[in-house]
Amino acid sequence: MTSVTQDFIVQELAWYIRSDGQLDLPKLLAAFQQFFREHSESWVERFDYKEAGPQLLLQAFLQRIVNGGGRVEREYGLGRKRTDLLVLWPVAEPGVEGKEHVQRGVIELKVLHKSLEATLAEGVVQTWEYADRCGAAEAHLVIFDRTPDKPWEEKIFRREEAIQGRPITVWGM
């Protein structure tokens, strides 16, 4: 399903690679946020599971870019209303031919069911735990608000949170 979807998402890998060779996850998620705002209604209807549609669409968007050299690993928290993604991106060590390290970034996906405050409080802790377990340097929490008739201006946001000194970027969609 997502391979068909990702074929129709026009994005270029080069747009999201920093000068140091790392994947620019904030830029990638900001681009998805705008893409989701503009296209989610038509895309989500194509999925058999409407509830999972936003999460599948983000996975297809990420896969389209990350397939250019890295990979996305998925962990589904069935019954916990979340999906964990681990983005792995190889980065060459400057000045050392043949040596590289792996950039690790986690993206926790949640669909808003309760209040934003409750979803945020739970999601930030889950994101921190997953980032800690994976040894990820970057952590992002994406909250999909599927409330009908709610204006996009209220759904779309970006803010910074932190737990035990680890920054977590929260994306509202």
* Spans where pLDDT lies below 50 across 5 or more residues: none
The number of helical segments is: 5
Question: Largest sheet, order of strands side by side?
Answer: 1-2-3-4-6-5
Instruction: Report the helical percentage.
Output: 25-40%
Helix and strand element order:
HHHEEEHEHEE
Task: Tell me the count of domains.
Answer: 1
- Mean pLDDT across all amino acids: 86
Instruction: Characterize the largest beta sheet: strand count, sense, and whether it forms a barrel.
Output: 6 strands, mixed
Distance between the termini: 22 Å
* Structural class by secondary-structure content: alpha/beta
Give the tally of β-strands.
Answer: 6
Computed over alpha carbons, the radius of gyration is: 16 Å
What fraction strand? 25-35%
| Shape summary | globular
Q: Layout of helices and strands, plus pairs?
A:
Elements: H1 2-7, H2 25-44, H3 53-66, E1 71-77, E2 82-92, E3 100-111, H4 116-134, E4 138-144, H5 152-155, E5 157-163, E6 166-172
Parallel strand pairs: 3-4, 4-6
Antiparallel strand pairs: 1-2, 2-3, 5-6
Helix pairs in contact: 2-3
